[in-house]
Design brief:
The N terminus is likely disordered. Helices cover about 30% and strands about 20% of the residues. The protein is of the alpha/beta class.
Length: about 375
């Protein structure tokens, strides 16, 4: 991991993932967390050894300069000193399962799930990552249902950040955000955050989208009604159109909770497919054709709107838990199915995954 070691260290301008203002590494704005998780100023002592300094900076934060004019926010130092960051945001209304899906994605990355694609993982901030693993991953894996995304106030809800490194030494921080659907509809400052997002993962809930009668009892128990997801259109309306009539952001549409329709073709086929090792673009294009046809056959156009609006977009079948909860728990534990594929797709579109057998990231997303 690269961290600045002196005043002559190379710095770069980075877009703050919270307020979208330009920020660069500045030793005069560093903070660390104390035992009560409160931020306190850090004074860098140049007399200590380089190894100790690097370890200190790895756990440090920098206060964004725009904090004086609004809600204080702090960026992990490695986020500012390791290549150009990539921001990934989950989009979907409440109870669509996007929090479970993102948790399982990060859990599988921590288990080495990206190694087959030539990527190594480190946490951007060890303390934050460990907190995420203990409070989210371990709870979900033990069968406990996670609460819905909470409102984050002025900014998007930051979840975790990972440093992904390729074999050639290229490293980029990847930051994950979980956007509460109700916040997107009512908070202009939060929708402004979408302008700076690099990749979006839209989460489709079968209970809201699909008309199968055997889903009606579960819909009734949860109080769900069929219809579109207003969060989808809110985000699509706010993003800049940088590629003619299309949005230039990388995107994936995930039909989550696919275990609920596991016997429907082609869901049955794709849930049984192993992770792809090569020719990613070919596999993702095939799955996208099947998933798009499935959505358009069973639902209205609104659920396929991201694919129709975004230039680079793939569609996927996945299940974050492998089964439905019972009274707030998964009594048989969780069994994630194909949760990494949507993320691998957007990482390929953004140049982190090299799919040389399929002409690289330019092909993924069609």
């Amino acid at each position: 991991m690269t961290v600045p070691m002196g005043p002559d260290a190379t710095t770069q301008d980075i877009l703050c993932p919270y307020c979208l203002e330009i920020i660069s590494y500045d030793e005069q704005r560093l903070f660390v967390r104390d035992d009560k998780q409160m931020f306190e100023e850090l004074r860098v002592d140049r007399r200590i050894s380089p190894l100790r300094l690097a370890d200190t900076l790895r756990s440090a934060y920098q206060r964004c300069g725009s904090s004086e004019d609004g809600q204080a926010h702090y960026i992990p130092v490695p986020y500012l000193t390791n290549g150009v960051p990539l921001t990934v945001a989950m989009v979907g209304d409440s109870a669509t399962g996007k929090t479970h899906l993102l948790t399982q994605m990060i859990a599988e990355i921590a288990d080495g799930g990206l190694k087959r694609y030539g990527l190594q993982m480190q946490s951007v901030n060890p303390q934050d990552h460990q907190t995420f693993m203990s409070e989210r991953v371990e709870r979900l894996r033990s069968g406990e249902m996670l609460e819905h995304t909470r409102s984050a106030g002025e900014f998007a809800a930051f979840v975790d950040a990972l440093l992904l490194s390729r074999h050639d030494g290229t490293a980029r921080p990847v930051a994950f955000f979980d956007l509460a659907g109700e916040d997107l509809r009512r908070t202009d400052a939060l929708t402004r955050f979408m302008v700076g997002v690099d990749a979006l993962i839209f989460v489709v809930d079968p209970l809201r989208a699909l008309p199968m009668p055997y889903l009606d009892p579960l819909r009734g128990d949860l109080g769900h009604t069929r219809g579109g997801d207003p969060a989808f259109q809110t985000v699509l309306d706010r993003l800049p159109r940088t590629s003619g009539q299309y949005l230039g952001v990388a995107a994936a549409v995930v039909i989550n909770k696919s275990d609920l329709v596991r016997f429907e073709p082609p869901v049955d086929r794709w849930l049984a497919e192993p992770p792809p090792d090569a020719r990613l673009a070919e596999r993702f294009a095939e799955e996208s054709r099947d998933a798009y046809a499935f959505l358009r056959h069973h639902t209205g156009q609104a659920w396929a709107a991201p694919f129709d609006s975004v230039l680079r977009c793939t569609l996927h079948f996945a299940s974050a838990t492998g089964s439905h909860d019972h009274e707030g728990r998964f009594p048989h534990g969780t069994r994630p199915l194909r949760v990494l594929e949507p993320l691998v797709s957007v990482l390929s579109m953004c140049g982190l995954v090299d799919d040389s057998a399929a002409d690289g990231a330019t092909v993924v997303g069609w």
